[in-house]
Amino acid sequence: MGPSVDELPVAKSEHETVALITIDTWRADHLSKELTPTIWALSESGERYENAWSPMGLTTPAHASMLTGSMPWEHGSWANNHHGYGVNQSVVLLPERYEGWATGAFVSAYPAGPEGGLDRGWEVFDGPQTGERAGAVAVERALKWLPSDRPALLWVHVYEPHGPYEGRGMSERERYAEEVQLADKTLKPLIDVLRARKATIVVTSDHGEVLDEERCSFQHERSISDHVLKVPMVRWGPGIESSVITGWVGLDDVPALLKGGAIAAREVWVGQSGMCESDCAPGCAPAGLQGRDTVAITSEGRLVDRPGKGRFSVGQPVTDLGPTLDAVPPMPEPFMDQTDHARSLGYIDPPTDR
Ligand SMILES: [Zn+2]
Q1: What is the pLDDT of residue 344?
Q2: Ligand 1 centroid vs 203 CA: distance in angstroms?
Q3: Which of 12, 67, 219, 346 is the most buried (most CB within 10 A)?
Q4: How far is residue 132 from each of residues 61, 128, 139, 157, measured CA to CA in Å?
Q5: Would you say 126 and 106 are in contact if contact means Cβ atoms under 8 Å apart?
Q6: 343 alpha carbon to ligand 1 midpoint, in Å?
Q7: Based on the domain organization, do 236 and 300 belong to the same domain?
């Protein structure tokens, strides 16, 4: 038997620790005792949010919402970094709110990387230069970095559940679940240390995933359904009591959640698809990044704005959500041409013809 977690030097700090852990492409219905035992255990002595929402099924914009506390049409990251969008310089990022703290980010895929501005303000920003890397690398580097002589803000991102799904399962659905299990197992050494340090921890996802239940399956960027926009969320830490929270929160609440206080529930959530393809959403036009569905969601129903088709209700008629949709500005043109750059780095879009 080696030393217990509590005996590791990194597990000891008299200073505050605040940690954001993001599992890319992790669906809300894949937070469970069976699939994610480490995070489930965390939720049992902390808060589990049953209604947490992502603004968009794209990695860079959704993480930008977590790091800025604002929506994509406010922070400027409307699309993944390789599409030439990024966080506006005027918007404050999470580490910039922690002056005097040690701040470290350890990410596992290019879309969560520095292109697009997510690296601004961190003392240490560590991620792959191309494609993706195993979450275990990010965890190992984070544990090596985590200082004990200062308060520390940490962001660790793991990419395992993102396609292509690897595993032994016979179906894509089974292999996706295996990737979720692997992400939880990968994070266990980190979560054990953070618990020993009595850190404030938020574990969530940037977006979910459509499995086999929609016309366009095994993707996230083309859908505004709950499979994509609902995300799992757990908070644990000093002063946080064991509870299941049904009030609605969004990824833009993450900076406030990390501060440890109570979060005011909201009654309306606005989300957007990352792009549109007529095969996925008949009637959508133009296809591509500029042809997005925008949706205002309440517990009663939802109002969708679909380019080329107009607005329509899903569920109860909810036309009074019109002003909410009106408040979302049109998407600007990208301010950087990074597509060729991103391709040269090995990160390209999934095929559009599936
Ligand atoms: Zn993602």
Answers
A1: 46
A2: 14
A3: 67
A4: 18, 6, 14, 11
A5: yes
A6: 18
A7: no
Within this chain, do residues 246 and 313 fall inside the same structural domain, yes or no?
no
* pLDDT tens, position by position, 244-265: 999 999 999 999 999 998 999 9
Q: What is the pLDDT averaged over residues 136-140?
A: 98
Q: How far is the CA of 298 from the centre of ligand 1 (A)?
A: 24
Other Cβ atoms less than 10 A from the Cβ of 152: the count is 23
Mean pLDDT is lowest, of 52-61, 167-176, 299-308, for 299-308
Helix/strand/coil percent split, the chain, to 5: 30, 20, 50
Structural domain including 302 reads 272-344
Cα of 186 from ligand 1 centre, angstroms: 18
**353: exposed, middle or buried (C-beta count within 10 Å: 0-12, 13-18, 19+)?**
exposed
0.85 exceeded by pTM: yes
**Tens-place pLDDT, residues 80-93:** 998 889 999 999 99
Ligand 1 mean position, distance from CA 6 (Å): 33
How many Å lie between the centroid of ligand 1 and the Cα of residue 311? Answer: 27
Residue 175's CATH number: 3.40.720.10
Could you give the CA distance from residue 24 to residue 5 in angstroms, rounded to a whole number? 26
